[in-house]
């Protein structure tokens, strides 16, 4: 972390150095207090989901800013083909990393880097008041740009199509790409077997991504698998995944609601004590005189 950038980016300080970073995904809750639950639980990252949500950039800003100040690194997955203007707003307002979905070629990856980096590496418009720098303006502009490029604008690319796999080495070789994230749901679906992470062709694809990340010193990330502990053990401890999505706020709410009903239903005996009025009501007939 530099003197310019005030907040830790765990993708660089932990994941790239070999430690597993666990991300809490928010896609529905907008109240920034949810960040405290992620912090208390021990997550290192907050993944603000804008591809599969209705978040506005203002709502994302509230969440990313809260994450920075809570000491959790905020990264944002932007919508597919959202454009440079959208990416710039997300970064200017607090994201310390941006994840781009559906990357298939090295040219796609290069375009993602161009959107995230200030010149000379990229084409991002220069704005001195950066959230990661505490909105300060008391620094040389080039110093700010260099430091934000280096530590506060990580680039992640999603590998979630069969056509991406032959290109993963070239994608990982792109200067400025920090992380390749396999989207388990989309990749397995594109292989014709949604959610079937044990199929040999799916496993071979992950091995190819792992080899590319090791060869080019990039972070290997995983999204879309939360409960298969054997699979997670394999990708983390054998393939070298160092960024993994832990769970999603909406999934946790859904699971919690279901568990609550299950508990209450297990002691509910009220239906046994209410008389069956069905036969009585069934016998009631209404006669209408003809006009």
Explained architecture:
The chain is of the alpha/beta class and 291 residues long. The chain has a single domain (10-252), classed as Alpha-Beta Barrel (TIM Barrel), CATH 3.20.20.60. Helices cover 42% and strands 15% of the residues. The chain contains 13 helices and 8 strands. The protein has helices at 10-13, 34-41, 57-70, 84-92, 106-116, 141-151, 168-172, 184-190, 200-216, 229-237, 249-266, 270-273, 278-282, and strands at residues 21-26, 45-49, 73-77, 97-100, 154-159, 179-183, 219-223, 241-248. It has an 8-stranded parallel β-barrel, surrounded by 8 helices. Helix 7 (168-172) links the parallel strand 5 (154-159) and strand 6 (179-183).
| Count of DSSP strands | 8
SS-based structural class?
A: alpha/beta
CATH homologous superfamily name?
Phosphoenolpyruvate-binding domains
Radius of gyration: 24 Å
CATH architectural label: Alpha-Beta Barrel
H/I helix tally: 13
Q: What is the CATH domain class?
A: Alpha Beta
Q: Any idea how many domains?
A: 1
Give the termini distance in whole angstroms: 87 Å
**CATH fold call:** TIM Barrel
H/E series = HEHEHEHEHHEHEHHEHEHHH
Average pLDDT works out at: 92
Largest beta sheet, briefly? Answer: 8 strands, parallel, barrel
What is the helix content?
40-55%
């Amino acid at each position: 972390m530099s003197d310019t950038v005030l907040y830790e980016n765990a993708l660089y300080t932990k994941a790239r150095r070999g430690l597993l970073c666990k991300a809490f995904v928010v896609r529905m809750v907008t109240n920034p207090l949810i960040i405290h639950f992620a912090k208390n639980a021990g997550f290192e990252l907050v993944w603000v989901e804008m591809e599969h949500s209705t978040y506005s950039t203002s709502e994302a800003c509230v969440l990313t800013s809260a994450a920075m100040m809570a000491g959790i690194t905020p990264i944002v997955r932007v919508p597919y083909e959202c454009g440079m203007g959208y990416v710039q707003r997300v970064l200017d307002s607090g994201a310390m990393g941006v994840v781009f979905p559906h990357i298939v070629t090295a040219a796609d990856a290069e375009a993602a880097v161009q959107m995230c980096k200030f010149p000379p590496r990229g084409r991002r418009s220069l704005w001195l008041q950066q959230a990661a720098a505490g909105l300060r303006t008391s620094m040389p502009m080039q110093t700010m740009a260099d430091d934000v490029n280096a530590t506060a604008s990580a680039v992640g690319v999603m590998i979630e199509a069969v056509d991406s796999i032959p290109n993963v080495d070239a994608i990982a070789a792109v200067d400025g790409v920090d992380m390749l994230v396999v989207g388990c749901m989309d990749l397995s679906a594109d292989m014709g077997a949604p959610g079937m992470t044990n199929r040999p062709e799916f496993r071979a694809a992950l091995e190819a991504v792992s080899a590319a990340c090791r060869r080019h010193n990039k972070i290997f990330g995983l999204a879309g698998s939360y409960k298969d502990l054997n699979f997670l053990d394999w990708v983390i401890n054998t393939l070298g995944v160092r960024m993994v999505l832990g769970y999603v706020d909406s999934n946790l709410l859904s699971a919690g609601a279901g568990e609550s009903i299950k508990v209450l239903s297990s002691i509910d005996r009220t239906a046994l004590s209410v008389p069956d009025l069905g036969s009585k009501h069934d016998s009631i007939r209404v006669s209408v005189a003809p006009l």
